[in-house]
Amino acid sequence: MRQVSTAMRVGYDQFHSLLLSRRSIRRFTDQPVERDMLAKIIDSASTAPMGIPPSEVGVIVWDSPEKVKKLTEDMLDGIRFLRRMLTPLGIMLMRPFIGKEGAQAFREFMRPVADIYVKKAKEGEDWFFYSAPAAVFFYGSAYADPTDPVIATTYAMIAAQSLGLGTCMLGFPGYIFRSSKKLRAKYGLPSKIQPGVMMVLSHPSIHYFHAVKRRFADVRYYP
After folding, report:
1. 38 is in which domain, residue-wise?
2. What span, in angstroms and rounded, lies between the C-alpha atoms of 8 and 81?
3. Same domain, 61 and 76
4. Per-residue pLDDT tens over the stretch 35-63
């Protein structure tokens, strides 16, 4: 185990300030993300807690604009395949297996989002990865706690923020990987995975000077 000096630990105020400064970034410069930075981010993410050790979380890194562009093309192919499934008839046939809420999510969220992705791609806009030059996918094996990749991604986003990088968390790519045997094979993913989370990142071309104070829907101390 690595020993951490108490002198190196940040206090609450410093840590809270870092959290408040983090915003989702969707505009990036063309400057590549250095391998050293990516290694630091993944090393920090590996410290995230997990359901049952050892970790069942895997990581794939795309570290150049060319690689991310090819991934975008693959994602669009996956989206087009999903759109053929997410017809009113297709959703009706799936409802006994996915339930009322699942069918509603497919009909009112996933299908409209898929339509937007395809439409924007035709217009020459990248709404998948926002033309970011780097992307990292955290996924879980079939035996992993579904929250493990999400927690690891959160740690990675905070680490990236500390390095001056901007990030954006994306859930849709994980479902495309999960539904496409072809893409899982191409990128060396297991045959069965938890959906996982994609994080795009790079040097931001826009800087925010005001923090967003987010709040939970409800906080109660049980009597």
Report:
1. 18-65+128-202
2. 50
3. no
4. 999 999 999 999 999 988 888 999 999 99
